[in-house]
Amino acid sequence: AVTAAIEAARQTPDEFWRIILLARIDLLLKQGATGDAETLIWEKALTLADQDLVRRMQRLQWAMADAGDEEAGERLARRAIAELATRPLTRDDVVATWVRQAAQAGRTDTFLLRTAVALDARIGIARLLDSFEDGFYRTMPEGTPIQRRDCISLAKKMREHAAAEEELSARLAMMLLDGAFYMKDFRAALEIVKAGVPGQDQAWHDMLSNKLGAHAALAENRPLDAIGFFERHMETVRAWEHPQRNPENGFLMHKEAVLGFNAKRIGDIYRDAGRPEDAAASYARAREFYRQALALVEAESDEYAAYQEDLNQVPTGE
């Protein structure tokens, strides 16, 4: 009967038994028998192709998580690291999912520990990065200062591992920049930009160098240096040929509005430095830029409302 079934299915004996094995695993998983499924998977893991194994491991791993069996999930991931070197697709997927599960559960210390274990095991950065990015952008706004520093350290180590892969290196550089902004470590951010971020042109590097130089100068109580950096930033903005999208609100920002924002900021620095005449001149310049920006957008648009609100924040001196 078995031979007849093989011939009818036009399969080789090895292929037939592979199909039977996968069907048995799938049935156990469907029935919720995760322990039996885990045992069978590990018995046959090295006989399965990576593509077959990864799908069953994924289903097993999430079944364990859904059941709240953290110990089983921990055991599975660490065993994958130890025993699946010849099945890198499965190993990397299991470990990346293990990292993501901790991030999504808001268990920051566990997320950081699992990421460190993954890096020590040389898990592929291409597979690990999405999971790490998820946890990174949860940790930076919500974590403790120590957790934030640890997260940034892991991102640096990950970037070292991905140094030869431009796209991954660029993503990690942008994450490190964001992390430096969260930590208000503008010097660190400036060093990242000065070292060069793959995929970004010279204009981008110049713009960010000026902005970061200004923020670093303010943090170091060098207001006049900050003004110089902001003025140089305004020169790059003047060269814009088209409005650019603001990532915070999605608006297309005309250069006139950005110039107004920076002129107002310069006025604030002069005001705080006890130079009211210079402050008044900068505020007047800011108001004029905002009026120009308002003339470029529809009166009923969100951009108009945003520009008008910013204009209302500029001191008039009256």
Q: What does this entry look like structurally?
A:
The longest helix has 19 residues, at 276-294. The protein is built from 16 helices and 2 strands. The chain is mainly alpha-helical. It starts with a helix and ends in a 6-residue tail after the last helix. The relative contact order is 0.04. The radius of gyration is 28 Å and the shape is elongated. Helices cover 76% and strands 1% of the residues. Helix 6 runs antiparallel to helix 7 and helix 11 (186-195) packs antiparallel against helix 12. Strands 1-2 form a two-stranded antiparallel sheet. The model has no long low-confidence stretch (mean pLDDT 89).
Properties at a glance:
318 residues, mainly alpha, 2 strands, 1% strand
Please state the average pLDDT score. Answer: 89
Q: H/E series, N to C?
A: HHHHHHHHHHHHHEEHHH
Report the structural category: mainly alpha
Outline, from the CA principal axes? Answer: elongated
Count of runs of 4 or more consecutive helical residues: 16
Low-confidence stretches: none
